[in-house]
Write a structure and sequence with these properties.
Helix content is 41%, strand content 14%. It is built from eleven helices and eleven strands. The strands form three sheets. A four-stranded parallel beta sheet has the order 2-1-3-4, sandwiched between helices. A four-stranded parallel beta sheet has the order 9-8-10-11, with helices on both faces. The two termini are 16 Å apart.
């Protein structure tokens, strides 16, 4: 499967790392001529990662989701609410984190200080029972039921969409801090290059697999499945704390056995109890597949890129890819 980035991204890919570092190191002046970094608030880790990669020392990033916290359920402190109000830019995804949405709505920030990722990339829908559907409302697989209702927020699990977010962040920072516009755009080009390489690794690494179905503890991997021609079967819906019915659990256990699924994937930030039960009853094993919604103390040294590559290795092993 060949997925092409824009011509502008191809030109950005020619930028070399030393130039990126040089541009970043000489920055720091905002539009008003101050040496203070641009104050950016991110709703969750993937957005904070993008801002950090593009802004470097020219930005001060505040991630509203602390390590070890499930971002869907984040509860903001008064200090975090104030940080949103005082931010030069807030990067968030409307509908993903209700308290973040509320804080942005109440902040009084102008439109140019709000970057809603939902306005940047095309979102996949979800059914009313929380499972991902393809663009246009078509169900991903026979185990998806319900009516199309809402959108799947986990856009960062597709490197191509992550690159679109990076470009949008760079352009918004360039508007806020025009003195460093070239540095932001160059850094975005470097990140685009890394994401293009990651996309190629997934394309090639998942091209030849004995099975294209994988079972996850919650429906966070719809974009990954859509990008690489896989089928996600989720125990819970988009919200990880939703409980499946007894019949749904039985159906998934039957599918694991009938399709030769070797692995039921769990996550770092949610309980593995239900996944462990299905694996035990079906004779499968369990392994971690990270939705990269946030970091924990155990993976604090990892990044979006390293976690995505760990996900690729886990899928290759589970789906017996060559």
């Amino acid at each position: 499967m060949l997925r092409l980035f824009s011509a502008r991204r191809r030109l950005c890919a020619l930028a070399v790392a030393p130039l990126v570092l040089a541009l970043a190191s000489c920055g720091g002046d905002d539009a008003g001529g101050s040496d203070d970094p641009v104050k950016v608030v991110a709703g969750a880790y993937p957005f904070a990662y993008v801002v950090e990669q593009i802004g470097g020392t020219m930005v001060d990033v505040d991630n509203l989701t602390q390590p070890g916290v499930e971002p869907h359920d984040v509860e903001l402190t008064a200090k975090q609410m104030a940080a949103v109000t005082d931010a030069d830019l807030v990067v968030f995804l409307h509908g993903f984190q209700p308290q973040v949405d509320e804080a942005v709505d109440q902040s009084g920030l102008p439109d140019e200080a709000r970057l809603d990722v939902a306005d940047v990339v095309e979102l996949l829908g979800v059914t009313d029972d929380g499972h991902t559907v393809e663009e246009g409302g078509k169900a991903e697989d026979d185990h998806t039921t319900g009516d199309h209702e809402g959108d799947d927020p986990h856009v960062w699990l597709d490197p191509e969409r992550m690159s679109e977010i990076a470009d949008a962040v760079a352009e918004r920072l360039a508007e806020i801090d025009p003195d460093n516009a070239d540095a932001y755009r160059t850094n975005a080009g470097a990140l685009d290059t890394e994401l293009t390489a990651l996309d190629t690794e997934f394309d090639e690494g998942l091209a030849q697999c004995e099975t294209r179905t994988f079972v996850t503890s919650h429906a966070a991997f719809g974009y990954l499945a859509d990008a690489y021609d896989l089928t996600q079967v989720a125990i819970a819906g988009i919200e990880p704390n939703t409980e499946p019915t007894t019949q749904q659990l039985a159906d998934i256990a039957d599918l694991v056995e009938s399709q030769g699924v070797t692995t039921v994937f769990t996550e770092e930030l949610t309980s593995p109890r239900t996944a462990d039960t299905i694996a035990r009853e079906s004779g499968a094993t369990t392994a971690v597949l990270s939705p990269i919604e946030g970091l924990t103390d155990d993976d604090s040294d990892d990044t979006y890129l390293t976690l995505m590559r760990q996900n690729l290795a886990a899928l290759q092993k589970a789906n017996r890819c060559s």
